[in-house]
Design goal:
The chain is an alpha+beta fold. Helices cover 44% and strands 18% of the residues. The chain is built from five helices and nine strands; from the N terminus they run H-H-E-H-E-E-H-E-E-E-H-E-E-E. Strands 2, 4, 5, 6, 7 and 8 form a six-stranded mixed β-sheet that branches. A three-stranded antiparallel β-sheet has the order 3-1-9. Strand 5 and strand 6 form a beta hairpin. It is globular and about 55 Å long.
């Protein structure tokens, strides 16, 4: 009963905070359009804070869904999922030319791409480009998907594992990624796969961007779904 009550309060909090953030975001946009100079810069800082709050509540909602009952996984068209997520970043240069393939997942699969592409946009700097790699076959049952960016921060070798764990923080520019990448790790495991990061250009972690890769199980012709 205590757990149910806690979840109820969490639902109320995330719902009401999300609504308040959406209203504040609208007025922040109006201020940015109406102001100039230093006041406009303050308004943009305000909008950045609101956007961060929106990201936090969205991540909390996703974590809640992950912790809920695990229904059976179903066939998901990976091509459609990726194209749908790319459409959410109209101002970002994203290259993708993958082929349709079905994998076992659920309706949380887009969250992996939301976090990986969003992190590239946030930390990659001005002019960053993102490439969602065509799906590569690891073996007959597994595919590998890559989300790479050209942003200069990259990921140092000694942090390539730690960044996927919420309570481990590095001192570099990617420190704020902790929760989002932790969600990516949880979802990859939920779907029977794994996630890791490499240098986009091998041996050059500090200036050529990062390449995040994760595996998914292919949905063969037989069967309607799979257990989580």
């Amino acid at each position: 009963m205590a757990n149910r009550e806690a979840n109820l309060y969490l639902d109320i909090l995330t719902h009401d905070i999300r609504n308040a953030d959406n209203v504040a975001n609208i007025y922040a946009d109006l201020l940015i359009d109406e102001l100039e100079g230093e006041p406009a810069r303050h308004a943009r800082k305000l909008k950045d804070g609101i956007r961060k709050s929106i990201e936090i509540t969205a991540n909390v909602a996703t974590l809640r869904k992950i912790q809920e009952g695990r229904d059976g996984l179903a066939r998901q068209n990976l091509y459609d999922v990726i194209r749908g997520e790319i459409a959410h970043f109209p101002d970002l240069c994203i290259r993708y030319s993958g082929l349709p393939v079905e994998v076992f997942a659920d309706d949380l699969l887009p969250e992996i791409f939301t976090n990986l592409i969003g992190n590239a946009a946030k930390h990659g700097g001005s002019g960053v480009e993102v490439t969602v790699g065509g799906v590569d076959d690891l073996d007959e049952e597994t595919v590998v998907v890559t989300v790479a960016d050209t942003g200069p921060p990259g990921v140092p070798d000694d942090l390539k594992e730690a960044i996927f764990f919420r309570f481990e923080r590095e001192g570099g520019r990617r420190g704020s990624q902790g929760l989002g990448l932790s969600i990516c790790r949880m979802l990859a495991a939920r779907y029977g796969g794994r996630i890791w990061v490499e240098d986009r250009v091998p041996g050059r972690p500090g200036g050529e961007g990062a390449a995040f890769r994760f595996t998914l199980r292919k949905a063969g012709r037989g069967g309607e779904g799979a257990s989580a």
